[in-house]
Amino acid sequence: MHHSVSMLGRAASAVRAGWPARMVGLASALVIGCAVIGVAPQRAAAQVPFSLFQPARQIEAAKPLARDVTGPPAVSQRLDGTAFFVDDLGHMLTARHAVADCARIVVSKEGRAVAARVVALATTDMALIKVPRTLGLAAVFPRASASVANDMVFAEAYDRLKPMLAHGGSLGNAFVDTTLRDPEHLVLRSNVTFGTSGAPVLDSRGLVEGVVSRRTTIDRVLAVDAAHAKSFLAAHGVRFQEDDRPQMSGTASRAHRAASISARVTCLQQ
Amino acid sequence: MLILRGTLVLSFGLLILAPAPGHAQDANFRNPEQAPPSWAQFAKLVKYRFEEWVAADETVANRFRNWVIEHSGKENGPPPTLVVRAWLNPDGTVERVTFPALSDAGATEDLRTILKRGNVGEAPPPEMLQPLNLRFSLNLRKP
Known about the structure:
heterodimer, A: mainly beta, seven-stranded antiparallel sheet, six-stranded antiparallel barrel, 4 helices, 18 strands, 11% helix, 33% strand, B: alpha+beta, five-stranded antiparallel sheet, 3 helices, 25% strand, globular, disordered N terminus
C-alpha cells in the first residue's frame, strides 16, 4: 500500500502586511524557502534541567502563556503563542486566549508567514485556526491517554525550539503531575513561560497529550487534555490522526518533533 | 494559472517498489502498512519537505517547475511517474537521491539539487530501512 499525497507548489506572491513579517500570498499558494526571518525576540537556548525535587512553589495568579510584545504604531499590541498542525489541510490547534479578539492572526514557521483565520473557539482554552495549506507535519493524538504521574513530556514555545535544536534537542522538559485533580486538564510540572500557550504536550511516544493553556504556579502548567482536544476537533469535522503506538524512536528528540508540527501564532490587536 | 501537482507513493527498503504477485518479499523491504508508525511519520516528514522544496520560490525550483510545465505531455517531457530513492543522514540531511534521468540533463540536475537541498528537520529512526522509495507522478491541473 502506498501513501498518496499532493505534491508541488503553486505560484508565489508575497503580500506585505503593515507588520514586518512577510505574508505569503495564499491564493497563489506558494511555498517559500526556509530562511528564518524571526520577528519576535528570541531568548537564549534554555534546556530545562530535570529534577523530581522542585523548590518550594511560589504562589502566583494563573497566567496565560501567550507573550505580549509591543508592536509598531499600526498595531497596538501583539501576542505570540504556539499552534500545531492537526491535519494536512492546514488546521491548527492553539490556546483560545492566544487568538481571541485579534484583528489579524499570523502563523509563522521557518521563515514563512501566512494569515490564519479562527475556525472555532472552544469553551475551554483552545481554538481551532486554519491556514490555507499546511506548513508542517500533522500531530498524532493517543486513542486513550496513558499519562501517569511523573511521565516525562515535552512542551515548549515554538520560538524556543530553534536554539534547543541547535543543542541537540530534548527528550522532555516537563513531568505529569497528578497531585492536583483536574477533570479537563493535564497538569504539568514545568517552567515554560511566555509564548508556550497553545503548544502541544508530547509524550514519550511522540503523541499529543494536551494543549498548553496557562501557568498556575511558577512551576505548574495546565494543558487542555487530549480527550477534550479530540472532542473539539471532531465536533468541527477535523480528521485528526490517532494511534497508541510510538510515532518516534525511543531516543528521538521530542523537541525536533515539536518543531516539525508546530509554528508561532501571532495575534495582532489594534 | 496552472498548478503543478503530483503524488508521491512511498515504500521503504531496497529496490523493490511493487513486488510482483507470488514473489517472496525481500526482507529488506517494507511497505508503509507493515512498517512501524515511526517510519511512516518520518516518511511523511520527508514527503512534506520534498513537496516544500520542489515548490519553493527560488531559481532552481522555479526552473524545474517551468520545465515540467513547458514539456508536460510532450515526447521529451517528464515521465508520468518518477521513482526517487532517498537516503537520509542521521542529522536529517539528504545524503543521496537517485531517479531515472529525465530527458533534459538540466532538469535532472535541478531535481537532484532540489531534493538534496536541505534538512528534513528530524533524524531518521535508527532502525529504519533505507532508501525511502518515493514515486512521484507529476500532473498539471488548474486550481
